[in-house]
Amino acid sequence: MPSSNTEIYDQSLYMIHNRLFFRLFQVGNSLDRQCLNELGISPVHWAVLGALSRPQLTEAGMSFSDLTEYLGISRQSLDNVLKRLEREGSVERITSHQDKRAKNVALTPLGQQSWLELQEQFFQFYRQAMSGFAFDDLASLIHLLNKLNTGLKQIQIAQADDDTK
């Protein structure tokens, strides 16, 4: 049993944090399931196409490393999705203009067309998922998720040094 107000506060904060991270886990799983069921693609597939379709990218695409950093996913996860997208003909790995030894990832004309054809479905997906939110709620949610993402990137849990045992 907590012996002070501080311990009660810490316990309550822990429970709220635990519930929040569990809800984020559930949302991620729901997004995964609904993307596959309704759109026929995974959220990572969707994100890769979206990242590569940005207007500021040229046909030179973007480096594999920059794409992993931008999407916040592991190299292995990205490589698996890219292999699938390459088999479909949606993306290609091309020689970088800056470094002839490096490969960039770019949308193919088929990939660009697929992205454009999915836009109406994405719009419906967004509209239905966010129907209970006011515009200000959405702006706040984006802000708060950005803050959480920044916090997650700063985590460095100290590991016990084996020499001190």
What are the SSEs and their pairings?
Elements: H1 5-39, H2 43-52, E1 62-63, H3 64-71, H4 75-88, E2 91-95, E3 103-107, H5 109-129, H6 135-153
Antiparallel strand pairs: 1-3, 2-3
Descriptive overview:
This protein is 65% helix and 7% strand. By secondary structure, the protein is mainly alpha-helical. The protein has a 3-stranded antiparallel sheet. The model has no long low-confidence stretch (mean pLDDT 90). The chain has a single domain (8-152), classed as Arc Repressor Mutant, subunit A. The two termini are 30 Å apart.
- The class by helix and strand makeup works out as mainly alpha
CATH superfamily: Winged helix-like DNA-binding domain superfamily/Winged helix DNA-binding domain
Measured distance between first and last alpha carbons: 30 Å
N-to-C SSE string, H for helix and E for strand = HHEHHEEHH
Radius of gyration over all CA atoms, rounded = 21 Å
Strand coverage percent = 5-15%
Number of domains: 1
Helix content bin: 55-70%
Low confidence ranges: none
Number of strands: 3
Going across the biggest sheet, name each strand in turn: 1-3-2
CATH topological fold name: Arc Repressor Mutant, subunit A
DSSP summary: helix tally:
6
Shape type: globular
Major sheet description:
3 strands, antiparallel
CATH class: Mainly Alpha
Mean model confidence by pLDDT: 90
| CATH architecture identity | Orthogonal Bundle
